[in-house]
Design brief:
Layout (H helix, E strand, L loop, with lengths): L2 E4 L9 H10 L5 E7 L6 E2 L2 H10 L4 E6 L7 H7 L3 E5 L6 H10 L3 E6 L17 E5 L15 H9 L5 E5 L4 H9 L4 E4 L1 H4 L4 H12 L3
Parallel strand pairs: 1-9, 2-4, 4-5, 5-6, 6-7, 7-8, 8-9
Antiparallel strand pairs: 2-3
Helix pairs in contact: 2-3, 6-8
Length: 215
């Protein structure tokens, strides 16, 4: 069954605890936390302290996406704070394999992310070091963008390669396009405005899970 991971980027920043608890009550599977450094992406969001406080109010897995040029300086801080999965970008000028190994050595899931324009070939040599591959379906940095349908072929490529980790997508996912993503191999759907701005999140999550089961 597809995992639904609401992104707190779309939650009310003054009521994160309320919104995260509402997402858990509605039946969501993970909580997605975008960390932005205003360098790798043109926006700034959240910290290890945010993750620590979220860990105190929910027992859902915390799926932390580091959109940072230099994640190596913060990896341990986010793991110490309670991140269940820590994802870094393949495009950074760092020793990505070593960082993935470092995350896994702490007993957590290691994820690798690609921008929409980056080819899957960029990560094929390190997929055995990962537990999750995140295909960004919008340019990272801001919520509310339209899904780039070209990325669906990258999701399919991962599936056809026999990748056994989670295949995640983030950006512009809605009820009306989730089926095509699931059909092509998606296992984790990160959704922001489609969930947090839905008048009945629980009913929406039930429908999304049904789509994930092919119903």
């Amino acid at each position: 069954m597809i995992k639904i991971a609401p992104s707190i980027l779309a939650a009310d920043p003054l009521n994160l605890e309320r919104d995260v608890k509402a997402a858990q009550k509605a039946g969501c599977d993970w909580i997605h936390v975008d960390i932005m450094d205003a360098h790798f992406v043109p926006n700034l969001a959240y910290s290890a302290e945010t993750v620590r406080r979220l860990r105190e109010v929910t027992d859902l897995p915390l799926d932390v996406h580091l959109m940072m040029d230099n994640p190596e300086i913060m990896v341990d801080a986010f793991l110490d704070a309670g991140a269940s999965c820590l994802t870094i970008h393949a495009e950074i000028d760092r020793n990505v394999p070593a960082l993935l190994d470092r995350i896994r050595s702490r007993g957590r899931m290691a994820g690798i992310a690609l921008r929409p324009g980056s080819p899957v070939e960029m990560i094929t040599g390190i997929l055995d070091r990962t537990d999750l591959a995140l295909m960004m379906t919008v340019e990272p940095g801001f919520g509310g963008q339209k899904l780039d349908a070209r990325v669906i072929s990258k999701i399919r490529q991962l599936k056809d390669m026999g990748y056994t980790g989670e295949i995640e997508a983030d950006g512009g996912i809605r009820e009306d396009n989730l089926e095509s993503l699931v059909t092509n191999g998606l296992t984790v759907a990160v959704m922001g405005t489609a969930l947090f701005r839905n008048e009945d999140m629980a009913a929406c999550v039930k429908r999304l899970h049904r789509i994930g089961r092919g119903e």
